[in-house]
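Hey team,

Filing this mostly as a record. A colleague (T.K.) asked me to run one chain through the structure pipeline before their review meeting, and I want the input and output archived in the tracker in case anyone asks later how it was produced. No errors, nothing strange. Just documentation.

Input sequence:
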Amino acid sequence: MRSTSFKLKLFASYLCLGLLASSVASILIMLQSKEMLLQEIKSKVLSIATTTAALQDGDKHQFVIAAAENTSPTYLELANQLRKVRDANRRDDIYTSYIYTMYTRPDSLRHVRFSIDAEENPDLVSKPGEVYKEYDGPQDLSNLEVSDKNEKDRWGEWVTAAAPIFNSKGEFVSQVSLDVKASDVTARTNQLLLYGVMSFMFSTIIALLLTHFFAKNLSSPVSKIVAMVQSIANGKLDSRISIPELKSTNEFVTIGLELNIMGDKLQERKVMEDALFKFVSPSVAQQVLNAGGLANLNPVRKKVTVLFSDMRNFSTYSETIDPEIMFNQLNEYFEKMVDIIYAHQGTVAKFTGDGLMAIFGAPIDDAYQEKNAVEVAVEMQETISNMREKWEQEGKVPMKIGIGIANGIAMVGNYGSSLRREYTAIGDSVNLASRIESATKELHVDILITGYVYEAVAGLFQIENKGLISVKGRSQQVSVYSVKYKKAKATFNPMKLVA
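Output structure:
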């Protein structure tokens, strides 16, 4: 009877603990998954709006606003472009209901008006100049944002993202707005809730079976097993069980062997993790660990911003300086530069002797990749400026760097052979960033960005238009801009995410 009572109490205790842990874990996972889902949807909506705005011809939009009619070839052309974007983004993971552009008049900033509507239904389409909504105060449509709460209007309730359109002079013209039904987002979160309940029920059944098994077969070897698990949990990954000391059934021997194997793998993972975090950015390292190895990071096509930096006159310096001194100086330089890149969600793709290549927007999506890349360039120049003063005092070469930044679509992922691989990007934007970095010497500037990068960061930095330059490998000239070291006094509203 005592043995039976002990087993029942033990069974009940373990079952209660298992259910409590399972319920807490399920709730936490469900809440976190819901938050991640909401942020993923908002990030996708904002990314679509941002990409659409970047590809729009601001001068044509300005013409349509001035004409205030929807039958001109220009209006029909722009409406068709928006319609293609809308149709291309009606997918299972995100369904775009409406896409349109809006503006305000200088004499009526409280009235937000339609300029171009991609809707085909004549009962729903809005005409140019038609007032969308009257607000309590002046509205600034030149910001990149996603609604922090669902937007309600006479057509329904929406998750809305907006991105500004600029003309060829860099002046704000109108705003691309993109609507996703709030009910679609709610449906996906409700589905997540159902999965959470099912997961909890499944974990409850597993907890019941495992608790019954351990309560029935518990014996002295358990203390040795628990001791090893606790030791590993406390960070002692070299802890192991002596199998002969178990002196028990095959089940406990198997558990002991599996726990020893687990300890070996945890130690191997720890060594791998330590090595990865030394040589690649934390975001890449985490994805490598989650994917089970570098070989699983297959190349994908995505929009990225690429930064190239290179030492000025490095070959000349290296001929006159002791290699050991130069090696240590470069290590000191790269140590600080890599910290700056990591701090702004960047990934160091490669080192090229005296230069480096960094990627923004991969492997983790970044709606502000251009802004982060330019901030890195500014901080790199300011940092090496301080380092030059230190190097001069130490009698070392006061090296300078040039930086080029370009954005666009590239193939990003794991490249190389089975023996040597690296995470990098390949595409026109990579080549362009390298080319305009070389142009910094000819233009006597330290930071150059392309026109598309300028459109994404206009107003956030002190930028000077350097006009068109010829770039090797391109038949057409490229518009470039130089960035000064100090930020201009400008207001920037980051993306607002619903908690």
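Quick notes for T.K.: The two ends are 54 Å apart (CA to CA). The CA atoms of residues 296 and 341 lie 24 Å apart.
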